[in-house]
Design a protein that fits this description.
There is one protein chain. The protein starts with 5 loop residues before the first strand and ends in a 16-residue tail after the last helix. Helices cover 44% and strands 9% of the residues. Strands 1-2-4-3 form a 4-stranded mixed sheet. A hairpin with a 3-residue loop joins strand 3 (41-44) and strand 4. The chain has helices at 10-23, 53-58, 62-77, 96-112, 121-134, 147-155; strands spanning 6-7, 31-34, 41-44, 48-52. The chain is built from 6 helices and 4 strands; from the N terminus they run βαβββααααα. By secondary structure, the chain is of the alpha+beta class.
Length: 171
Amino acid sequence: KAVGGLYTDARAQDELKRLLEHLSPQSLLPIQLLRHPSANAFVLPTDKIYLHTGLLLRVANETELAALVAHELAHVSLGHLDNLDPSADLLDRRSVEAEVAADARAIEIMRRAGYCPRSASTFFERLIRERQATNAPTRFARTHPNLEARVSHWRQAACAEGQTRPPHATS
């Protein structure tokens, strides 16, 4: 499959729009899918959330995807995009502290939307197994908490009584 450019599958876009509206009904941020095999998501000062198609192939369920989208929404709500140098490399704009804060806010966003944030730790566990299997270093090591710390943080997130899946999911 081709790498680069927008992935414009209407069904996928509709599902992402529904997920975004569920996480943050007041949000006007569009989500764009980019053709790329990596498990990456990011938000730019252009006020768009970008997801790589490789990320969609790695999430096992809606809760995991919701955690990743909520994390990007958190960067916006925390003001992490304000006053950024647009000429700087994207990774140079981030800090481990900002990523930890975005994870914490993402957990709040998920709880408000009825998701159990603890369930999202399985995504990071899969990334750890993938990294171990390929023995590949992560390019986000200098700007993101290590994956093991993220698994621990998301596992510790408390879930509300009966909060184990999206409220609109069917049995």
